[in-house]
Write a structure and sequence with these properties.
The chain is α+β, with helices and mostly antiparallel strands. The protein has 32 helices and 30 strands.
Amino acid sequence: MQATLERKTFEISRALEFFSEKELQMQIGFSRSNWAIALTKELIDNSLDAAEMVGISPEVEITVEDDWLCVQDNGPGLPLDTIDRSLDYAVRVSDKSLYVSPTRGQLGNALKCIWAAPFIVSNSEHGLIEIHVAGVQHRIAVTLDRIKREPSLKHDVIPGSVVKNGTLIKMHWPSVACYLGSDENALFYRSTPDVHELLRRYAAFNPHATFILKMPDGAKMCLASSNSTWDKWRPDQPISAHWYTPEKLRDLIAAYLGREETQDGKYLTVRAFISSFAGLKGTAKQRAVTEAMGLSRASLRDLVRGDDIDMVRVRELLTAMQAQSNPVKPERLGVLGKTYLSQYMVEHAFSDSESVVYHKATGVTQGLPYVLEVGFGVNRSDYEDCGRALIFGLNWSPALKYPPELLNLVGGSRVDSFDPVTLVVHLACPSLDFTEHGKGSVNLLPEIRTQLEQCVESVTKKWKKAAARKNRENRMRERDLEELRKSQTRKLLGFKDAACRVMEQAYLRASANGTYPANARQIMYAARPLIKKLTGGEFYKNTSSFTQQVLPDFIKEHPELTRAWDVVFDARGKLTEPHTGKRVDLGTVAVRQYINAWTRDFDEKLRGFRIENDCPTTGPCNRFNFALFIEKEGFNELLQVANIARRFDIAIMSTKGMSVTASRTLIEKLSEAGVTVLVLHDFDKAGFSIVDTLRSNTRRYEFKTRPKVIDLGLRLDDVVAMGLESESVEYGSEIDPRERLRQRGATEDECNFLVQERRPAKSWIGERVELNAMASDQFIDWLEGKLDDLGVEKLVPGEGVLAKAYRRAWRYALAQDAIDKAVRTVNDEAISVPHDLEQAVKEKLDDNPRRSWDEALFDLVRGY
């Protein structure tokens, strides 16, 4: 009787999803390589808020060691109830998400992420976090209960702690120092900063705070408060009814009802609820609101109708509250001011004092007050080769991603990535429209966007004029430079010394701390900004110098350090074995695997034979519905390690540069067979050409069937979302390259990024971004997200094919049983080996030299 499977229905804890890398990336809003800096930022935000709520000048100290980091503040101490509730993954715990107020907190679930992240980065083995508060130590140990399929969070409370005041949170995190950086003199060279840059950015927006950093090598950085009495809108200040919409007020009321808020044994009254709003503390105003509503002695429960809250009553309540209170003036949110921002740019952003320009805009839009402050300065000459620094802050916290409109404005002001300038932008506003769960990017309201454009144009006016003159004369006039900065001197490192200093850090970033292979160009992209900071903005003119000389030489000269490194160099050819037909790409990983698999002998005992159980297919039918076309070959090993082809049932194609006619022939036939081709390419002019060539007719090839081709990117949105580093590119043509880019599907923003200005010598310059600019884990996360969005999944044939394959598998299983039985009957000891066997084999090979020795041997045994 044929065996059958009786399927059971299993319950899997939703908390386990939170403890997966993919889910946590969605919660935090960044890939794994940036978790450490993103969560450090969340802890600093919470520390600043905690101190401000009790009216003291914040002091935040960050200590980084090789395998742990801690953040300590001088606030009132993290409440035990907050710790306990954060351990429950069935609910989201936040004291900020439903209050419309200009506060720093973004995630709303920072502690939940902090419990999960060390567990995941330790390869789901064990996570440990310590919290020291009020003389007590809390230890949160995270393990995985594989039977219940859910994380196990053990909370131990240990009396005694070195911390009496404030809170210290310590995360045990393997090799965390590599992710946070270790260069005290680093400049602002990328959108996602290291810990030194992060604190400098915090200092830009918090004049009243002191920041201290201690690194593993004993280095210490202190950014002392410059104005301990500086005032801003504090987290404990009442919220304004003018900042709410009826929908947001309804959500806040529902949250209060959900907590069953009571007062003297009764549900919270409407009057008590409105007393928490700015300008409604007075009893006369409270009475005026409730009497106008007919709710003098009503509770919030009286606003419920059936299973929902009565929106008509909520709108009336909001209108009455706004009528009895005055709007908050923008300046009350807090103003950094020209004096402080100018001082900061001189002391911490290396700007020349005479070059700093400041502009402020305030206003009210959609009921929301805002303060927008912008500062611009040109670096002193000893830092003139360090490149552009963009420092963007929201509600006194540095953002880890830039809004696209800011990047467009900077480009329009002729501020290129290699220019020696700093632009500081800060926006204070009670409500911000974040575009993702981790709240790393923000959509600005139209009026604020307009004000940002005007402010940036105002502060960069002189620079833009000087840059235009530079274009005309092919150099910046000395008098312009003298007006913008003073002369200084600077000692720089040579290329080789700089490369040696940063190589380990670059490899760890590119390989996700050794989790994935990293090809040489990925390491180059990770190393380039680090090297440029040490060499004054200079890098190898030919990047192959780094990938083919500097990196291999470093590996050879540091065998102990690089012993475990998995560096991939492009294949430069193939080896094909005689007789076996095995082909080996002459690339790093393939050669390594081939050598490790070499055999010097073989086991003469008969172990059995295995029949291949794969259904014999060639081509896409019953095997794959999608093919992934990559414009370069360096990612094959990474895709293999991540099992992309097998997990998604997707064919992998790759070329170097433009596709050949054979590629287009194959794509046309694949499309006719129902296969969709997904294209990965660099974000550059050639990348758009590659996609266009794969789906458009050319002189050399005309498609008879319209190909099914989808452009996965890179595109500008991907570059901005991940903060990828770009590089300069020159187009040797009199014709504006943007014309061809538009024809090939590029948006206007993409055209203006790729082509930024015309050179006097009949050429154009712009920026480009390679796929290699992503670290290995970042690339895989990005690709998997694209495939998931398109619905790429495992292929299962129809019933007819499955039935045929089932009958085949049944026959093969019977044949395998027969073979195994026959093998067990063979008696090795009864076999007599001829004394002239070697000579007999040679004679067989003389008769047919194309055969192998083992083929000739088998013929002898069979009696031929």
